[in-house]
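User: What would this chain look like folded?
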Amino acid sequence: NMKNKGTQLGAVLAAMLLRGKIIYEENE
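Assistant: Here's the prediction, encoded as structure tokens.
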């Protein structure tokens, strides 16, 4: 269960990073 939660957190972080990267590149 702990491992599952860690995987979820990693997925959320990855999505946030990806979205932030897209926003950042569009602002350039």
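The chain has one domain: 1-28. If you want, I can go into more detail on any region.
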